[in-house]
Design goal:
single chain, 317 residues, 14 helices, 1% strand
Length: 317
């Protein structure tokens, strides 16, 4: 009897088979994002990957359109010449490191100070922020043109300084080996400081106000609040902005090319500017590609070591 009842008792309902159309519809949404970004990915592959691979290819070639009889496979000859024969490479690399270290340090210092100032509440804060950030919207060539006019010996600041007894008439800060470096530094500071100010100010907006209120209750001074609350919170923003700006300053060509052209007497020739002269003026694209490859490896190594030592993205103690 019991077995008969057990046979008649219906079991749990079996799930209905999924229609074939639904399976195909479930796969399509997973592929849709890749299909949407495919055009942009192909464009990036064409405009970025191809030129980079071309540089690697030509770095192993002798390629000079003005001397086609010398073109051909070079192997490691270009790289051997860079490290053993080319003294300009080491001079320009040394100046590039000096340029990057001074520029990035000063831009970070002034950018942090400006971000802290415009983060305060005061009358006309919106206008002040717009004025602080406006130089970043100016192109590099236009920035160079502005500072070329400011440094002009006939109509620039040196003439007005000479009117008040400082310096002599007809002198140019860009033609003197003793002043050209700092003149170029000031010009690039005007455009580079807002970059740090923008990124740091954006991160300052996310610092919890409760932390400062609790620190004030505990009797912490403004300096201690800055060292123990503000700076730790800004760690990742400072590391990232410093790395990005260091790479950009290392590759800086437009400002120095327009201001000084690498002179006087090669005093302001960076490695990228030397590469530009070698390729555009010297037409030695094979050797210039080898120099570019070396610069790429230097930047890649520096970025990896910097991120490793700075522990970017790690927890702040």
């Amino acid at each position: 009897m019991a077995s008969a009842v057990a046979q008649k008792t219906p079991g749990p309902p079996r799930p209905l088979p999924r229609p074939p159309g639904r399976r195909r519809a479930g796969v399509a949404p997973r592929r849709l994002p890749y299909l949407l970004i495919a055009p942009a990915g192909l464009l990036m592959l064409g405009f970025i990957a191809y030129p980079v691979l071309s540089v690697f290819y030509y770095s192993a070639q002798h390629y000079n359109p003005t001397k086609p009889w010398r073109n051909g496979f070079a192997g490691w000859e270009n790289f051997t010449a860079i490290f053993t024969e080319d003294t300009h490479f080491w001079d320009t690399l040394a100046f590039s490191l000096k340029w990057v270290s001074v520029e990035v340090s000063l831009q970070l210092l002034f950018g942090l100070a400006l971000a802290l100032i415009v983060n305060q509440t005061f009358v006309g804060r919106s206008l002040g922020r717009a004025l602080v950030f406006s130089p970043w919207a100016v192109s590099g060539v236009l920035t160079s043109a502005i500072w070329v006019l400011l440094y002009n010996s006939q109509t620039g600041i040196t003439r007005y300084l000479a009117d008040v007894g400082i310096g002599e008439y007809g002198t140019s800060l860009l033609s003197d080996t003793g002043t050209v470096f700092w003149a170029a530094i000031v010009a690039d500071l005007w455009r580079g400081v807002p970059f740090f100010a923008i990124l740091i100010l954006a991160d300052l907006q996310s610092v919890p106000k409760d932390l400062y209120e609790a620190a004030e209750v505990d009797g912490a001074s403004r300096i201690r609040q800055f060292l123990h609350i503000t700076l730790p919170h800004l760690k990742d923003a400072i590391i990232l902005s410093t790395l990005l700006r260091a790479v950009w300053e290392f590759n800086n060509v437009d400002l120095l090319y327009t201001l000084t052209g690498g002179g006087p007497a090669g005093e302001t020739t960076t490695l990228p500017l030397y590469i530009a002269h070698t390729s555009v003026e010297g037409r030695d694209f094979g050797y210039a590609s080898a120099l570019t490859t070396v610069a790429f490896v230097i930047l890649l190594f520096f970025s990896m070591v910097y991120l490793r030592l700075s522990k970017f993205g790690g927890e702040t103690k």
